[in-house]
Each structure stands twice: as structure tokens, then as C-alpha cells.
Amino acid sequence: MPSFAQTHSRVTSYYILQDKQDILQQLVHAARWKKPVLIVPALASEFTDPENRPVFENIVAELSGAKYLAHVIFGLDQASEDDVRTCIDICQKGGLKNYIIQWNDGPAISGIYEMLEDGGFDLSRRGKGRNVFMGFGVAMALGATCVGLLDADIKTFQRRQLDRLFYPVLVHNYPFSKAFYARWNGQRLFGRVKRLLLDPLLLALKRKFSEGSEEKMLRLVDFLLSFDYQLSGEVCLDMWLLRKMRYSLNWGVEIFTLIEVYRKASHVAQVEFTRKSFDHKHQRVSTDDPKSGLHKMSLDIIQTLLHALIVEEGLEVGEEFFRDLALTYESIAEEIIKKYSDNAEFNNLSYDRDAEESMVYDVLSRAIVQTADHLSAPSHIAEKMLRLTASYEEFKPFVDQGLQQTILLLEERLREESLEVRNLPSWERIMWKLPEVSSHIVDALEEDKQRFK
């Protein structure tokens, strides 16, 4: 019997109990007085590369059957004018009529980015986060009532999966829903960052907070653990929530989104996307390169989580906290790896236990220590300076003038900067400062529409 347990106070779990159940008509009915919009961020290579193009073509063909969507926004990065025409051709051949092209490198949308930069909003860091953030602005300018996100590299995508994602928000009026699924391809397990980093790290934090009676932090960690797949990129948000949420530009975006949801919504949903194998593009580990692959992703996730706990939630930590956290993480990760190994053997799946353990010790545990060192360095320096200035009479005139207070203030500033995460403000804040931005976005879309007519 499939699971249908509801064990989380703030998260409703939607399970697939009847795979043949078609909820399309319910969505079409609910959309009569609402305006659901889907955003598909994509690199040009995801539809121009011959190896990737069939995956993108299948997504477009499946989306043509999602009759409840008012618009499908394709946010295109690193795309030339010819690439945009290729995307339009795929949409037309796939029978998708309600598509909108958000050409990020074109002169029209580039003008919107410049307008935001001039308004004091730093969007200089290019990537998926920036692409999606602009997609939210486009959806708002088009009058969307709820917005969904879908990756452009899902090899096993079917329209019914998207139907399930939109259902809690569109039909049951939840403010937020997030997909969950098993990351495997029928032969081996994937989702390494979730399995080997995030879950054991959250469990390690939970153990630490339980021992220290940190109830405020414990509630946040419990909320994150309520989700079966915290790092899934497929989400749907009601517009009132989306307007209020801040947004992250790095690999920590999924965790930061859940933290923002925790702060701003009382009850949300997670939806079983599929019971079959789910597969899309995989990142390499990059053991020796902390600026790429899963290594970079792990650092961003750890930094985002610790920033939320320490800088924003006010968690007080010392040097021993990070040392204990890393040791506890390794212990829990070892236990979890054995469980995955046992489960893989039970299902006759390929599982490289040595490689998984190596990733924990050579990449993920080191990433925790790296982030901790980066955070605690200002405290070490300040402690030495305070001890030095208190030990010698020569410093007394400067101490009387507030030298030690200045050291403490500087320590606090450097501590915050050392865990600085460049998060974007909410679109509500942007529209307050630049009330004309929506009309400029509509003009930019119309300009590109005429360009590619």
C-alpha cells in the first residue's frame, strides 16, 4: 500500500494513490477565474544542442496540453537572436500557443535589468536565479494569480506531473506547493546533495538544537525536514506570497525559498510529482574545485542555511559549535549511507558506497568546515586583539577612547559580511520603489514580440 501519512503540522502531503486519475478538468475549471502562469528558465544549449533538444521538445509538447495555463514564459539565457527563433519554432511545432519569450540577452529585457540596477537592485550575478527572478516580474506584469516553476532539462516530464504541482494552489488555495520525487533512473540513486549533505546536516542541527533547547531554531529545522525533497526546483506560489518573498541568486535558492515560506506562510503543501523514475541533468562532484559542480552547490547551501540561522534568526555560536556540528554530521551521514546501501541492495540497484563516503569526507564535511572557518575568523582575530590591548599599558589611552568597543563593532560587521548572501528583495519592495517597472516589462515583451513576428 502506498504511503499517505500526514505527519507534519504545517505541510500537507499530496500522494499519488491512483496513477490514472486525471485532474486536468478540475484545473481548467478553477482557472476560469484565475490566471496561472508557468515559468521555464532555460539556457540556449538546452534546446539548440542536438543531445538536449528532444528533452525540450517533449516538455513543450506536453505543456501544450496544460489548458489551464494562461501563459508559459520561457526565460532564455545565453541566447542569440537565431536561438530565440529556434525556441519559437519548437513552440509552434509543438502546438504551444500561449508561450511568451523572455529574452534576457536581448536589448528590450536588458533595458529592464539596467532599470533595476539603476534603482539600486544588484542583479549583476548572472544565472538561473536572475533568470527566474525576472520571470516573476514578467508574470506579475501579465497579471498572474499564481506562478509555477519548471526546469527545462527533465528527461521524464509528463503534463500530469505539472497538473499535480498546480493543484493545491489552483484548486485548494494553498499559498505554496513543492514537488517531491525519488531521484533515480531505474538503475541507480541520484540526488546526492539532498541525501548526503542536506538531510544529515539538518539532522545534525536538530540534534544540536535539541540538546541546547534552541526551540526557535528547532522549529525552522523541523519545517525543512518536513519536505521529502527540499531541493526540487518545481514549485508553485500564489501571487500574494510571491510578492512578499525575497529571493536568492545562488545554489541555495531552494533552501532560501523554503525559509522564506516558513516565515511568511502558515500552511503549505508538497506534492508527489511522480512515482516513476525521475531524471534530469546531473552535476559533477568537483572535489578539487569549490567554484563549480556539487562542491559549489554544497557551499552555497551551507552558507544560505547558516546565514539564515546565525545572521537572520540570531543563533549564537562559538568555535566548538562548528567542530561538533561537523563531527555530528559525519556520524549521521555514515548511518544514512548504510541505509541507502541496504535499500539499493534490496532493490538490486547499483550503489557505490565508497564513492558516497568519499564525497561526504572529501567534499561535504570540508565544505561545512570551510564555511565555519570563514564565519569564525573575525571572532578569533577580535579575541586576540582584545587580549592584546588589555594586556599592555601602552594601549590604555586608546582603550579609554573606545578602542575595544570599536573592535567589537568591527567584529560584528565582519561576522555578518563573512556569511553575506546576496539575496534580492521582494518584488513588492521593487514595485514600491519603481512603480512603473511593470509597464516597462510589458513594453519590452511587446517589443520582442514584434521583433520575432
TrEMBL record:
Keywords: Membrane, Transferase, Transmembrane, Transmembrane helix. The chain crosses the membrane at residues 132-150. InterPro entries: Nucleotide-diphossugar_trans. GO terms for molecular function: transferase activity. This is Glycosyl transferase.
